[in-house]
Amino acid sequence: MKRNLITSAIAVVVFTVLLGIVYPLVVTGISQVAFGSKADGDMTLIARDMKGDPRYFQPRPSQTEYDPKATFFSNRGPNSKEAADFYREQVAAYRKLNGADPPADAVTTSGSGVDPHISKENAEIQARRVARVRGIPLERVQQLVENNTDGRFLGLLGEPGVNVTKLNQALDR
Q: How far apart are CA 72 and CA 137, in angstroms?
């Protein structure tokens, strides 16, 4: 029995070092060499809080205040008073900013809390406000929306989404 416990403890230590330290360092090293700066991540994959600034497209609400170091989803149930209050506030804020009823993605958080994508429907509603506030033609804003729309994964899965981080950067250029 003593021998089995010692063998088990050694196995735990060895595998912890191999899989918890050595393997991640090797994979990180290979990715840095093979992919360079791309291995460090892409900030256009993270939504940014636009603080309701009407000059910008607004991302989905975030449970984490758009912090990429602490991503998680809301755990509100359909019968939760907290959920009802949250959605009521989100709907009111969207209506105030855009003068329209929001699509579902405009008031619900994403799984990570930092997803930069909104639906095309949401982007079309927001485009009118952005064009008006910035004093640029709606057609130009709609073209920027189209340029920053990602298609379905592998052409089949999911729905097209508009990357508001890239879109807002394009607006500023």
A: 38
Dihedral over alpha carbons 80, 86, 88, 89 (to 10 degrees): 160
Amino acid sitting at position 23: Y
At residue 149, φ and ψ (nearest 5 deg) are -100, 125
Write the pLDDT tens digit of every residue in 92-102.
999 999 999 99
Token pair belonging to 31: 């990715």
Task: Give the tokens for residue 57.
Answer: 């497209």
Least confident of 56-60, 108-112, 137-141: 108-112
Give me the mean pLDDT over the 16-24 stretch: 95
d(CA 58, CA 13): 48
Of 144, 56, 67, nearest in space to 109 by CA: 67
| Contact (CB, 8 A) for 117 and 161 | yes
Confirm if 116 and 138 have CB atoms less than 8 A apart: no
**How does the average pLDDT of the chain come out, rounded?**
91
Q: Quick one: tokens of 43?
A: 């900030």
Quote the pLDDT of residue 25.
Answer: 94
